[in-house]
Amino acid sequence: MNLxxxxxxxxxxxxxxxxxxxxxxxxxxxxxxxxxxxxxxWMNQLDxxxxxxxxxxxxxxxxxxxxxxxxxxxxxxxGNFSVTDKTGQVIxxxxxxxxxxxxxxxxxxxxKTVLTGAGDELTTExxxxxxxxxxxxxxxxxSLRNAQINHGVDEFRLTEDDLEIQERELKTHTSTVLMIxxxxxxxLYGEDRISPAKKVAxxxxxxxxxxxxxxxxxxxxxxxxxxxxxxxxxxxxxxGPYHTNTYSGLELAMEILRRRKSSNKQIFMIxxxxxxxxxxxxxxxxxxxxxxxxxxxxxxxxxxxxxxxNIPITxxxxxxxxxxxxxxxxxxxxxxxxxxxxxxxNVGTFLFEDFVKNRRKHVQ
Length: 364
Prior knowledge:
Blueprint: H1 17-31, H2 36-50, H3 59-68, E1 72-74, E2 81-83, H4 85-100, E3 122-128, H5 140-151, E4 164-168, E5 174-181, H6 194-211, E6 216-222, E7 226-229, H7 246-259, E8 264-271, E9 277-280, E10 283-286, H8 293-308, E11 313-318, H9 322-335, E12 338-342, E13 350-354, E14 359-363
Parallel strand pairs: 5-6, 5-8, 8-11, 11-12
Antiparallel strand pairs: 1-2, 3-4, 6-7, 9-10, 12-13, 13-14
Helix pairs in contact: 1-2, 4-6, 7-8, 8-9
């Protein structure tokens, strides 16, 4: 008998039956829009067909563990289950690891820079005044001392050569609005685009809130209209019977950023790339056939407005239709932003177009 020995590779879940079932549950809960009862019904059906559990650990044990470990809450009045914040956090963290797992670690809360410049936080360094410096940055005490040293006390005078500027730290914290398309086209023709869209949204939101905790993050969804949601709602988003009002989404995002005091502002937009709706008063103007010139032009106008306000837009396009990509390229070029393209079945690989630096490369 010939024996061949190889290195033992443990399963990712360590063989733990709870972890195996948890992986499935976390996927199902996203498809059911956060409906725990429906997700558990699906799990019982799958268990019946495929034998997910063993005699020593049944589905009842799994449900009890979900409650004990803080994934589920039970309403004592009616016995219904609901997901906890921990469940959403675990889903977002897994999405981040899957999509951005290769990002290099850096100190949390910092956007590193070697530059000094306009900001609110004073440093201990100073320098001579230069033409164009703001008057409120002048260090009055040091400037008066220089005048006394240079001209004497008896004949006091203050000249430009006496002035010193107090250096300030360049503040690099950023205000971000994350826009998510929930129009019907995100599941049209049997192609699931909303699931990878949510995965990218969860990864981005987890990245921003954990890696850059001093930044602000607001989340906007858009269909016929646009409205704000909480980060905890992202895993359970569902597509509605909506058209795609990209204009309304950008308008709301710009209004949110207008109220933010940060000097650095940006928009992340996750979409399949095709605007099909405008709201004119109480009336909706809609056209799902091709790219409507009226809708496209107004949307591009918003992109140009964002550029004038120094608000770059990074578009994550979850579709591979050439004519839709053509619109996104035009939109990105007008805004001077960035775009990532991905087919729905491979959200981790993007074609990155950077119109700022005018280069193209693949990001794996």
